[in-house]
Amino acid sequence: MKTIQQHWYLLVCISFLSIPCGAQDNHFPFMLPEKKPDFPLSRALERNYENYVTPSPETNELYTQFKYTKLNGFDYSNADGTISRRDPSKVIFENGKYYVWYTYRHTVTSPKGAKSSTETIPSSDWDLSEIWYATSLDGFTWEEQGVAIPRPPKPNPGHRSVTTADILKWQGKYYMYYQGFSEASGLRGDDCPVLLSYAESPNGPWTATNKIVIPNGPKDSWDQYSIHDPYPLVYKDKIYLYYKSDFNQKPNLVRMQGLATAESPFGPFTKSSMNPVLASGHETTLFPFKQGIAALTIKDGNEHNTVQFAEDGVNFKIASMVELMPTAAGPYIPDAFTNTKDGRGITWGLAHFTAVNGWSTNHANLVRFDCDLSLDIDDPEMKKHHVYHSPGVYYKQQLTKEQKERIIKSNRELTGKTD
Ligand code: AAL
Q1: 229 CB within 6 A, ligand 1
Q2: Quick one: pLDDT band at residue 2, thresholds 50, 70, 90?
Q3: Structure pTM?
Q4: What is the dihedral of CA 173, 132, 297, 399, to 10 degrees?
């Protein structure tokens, strides 16, 4: 029979053995545990295990670097600002080739601002534009095919400019959603609704409905003035169209993203009662991923430079933080319209660089990006988690004249020296 002391001794030993080593000696293990350890963690460590698919980027399917390649096949009039191509649609593969649509501006001058704009002088880079398209066999060299959707005659909505298109394939037909401006962008914000054209083939001809398909929200609501970057996917047997709106007035414009769903490409579209569903991001770039939807949240907002994921397409969580994201990305998404419940992700697409040659000759160039946000490739090169930038990239971020003056003034106050 054991004595009481022996019982106590046994109990202490058992409880000592059952304490995991981290808590016992208070040292986090040298080898990063793949699963969340079973002892108290700091909030940052809790987050590292709870917010991300895996605790380090190498194995995080929604983490990537982005690589950029110049495209062949587009002429930009010696970069004088009179020709611009921007805001590419998703890339689709049809008839043995890739297709992309984009905002195309060919004007007598570069953009001159809203006050100086006329019937022929553009206010902004996307003013006085049309939607053009190009095809490619490899995604690097493109053949421009010309106009897909011209500006409709006055007084149809969009008569001033049609821009920022995106494509939907639904029951074998093609639907193009795009911004329709009826006055120069910048006269009163960047205000516009969304219009729709449709075609039997990606080569067109496109029939414009000349009707607003996604209207602005009611007075005083976040999307009362602008519905930008319409971006349709097929999800849960419906059309899930994400979009962005600008709100909160200058100089503190806020950009967030909303969702509108429909059972027919012609609508009616019902806006989600949870809108805005993404609190950050400028242009929209989303894709089916596993059973949900992933989003590149690019410029603007607290959560810019993140990839996010929503299991239900509505409630997004940050899945990774990334850098040098493609602006206005239009990815190639093989399963964008297949109503998949097992989204495979993306590896490349087109994006744009703006003000490529400075602001006086402002125009944008289309560019190719590559990445590994795919369940089907495993590219360690894309999973590195730092990017080396040459000093020139940092020095390009210069202090303004006003900032320099502020610093000089505060140094003078501190040192008492006036010269
Ligand atoms: C873009 C998009 C929309 C805006 C403008 C042209 O990058 O967000 O299309 O209206 O800028």
Answers
A1: yes
A2: very low
A3: 0.91
A4: 180
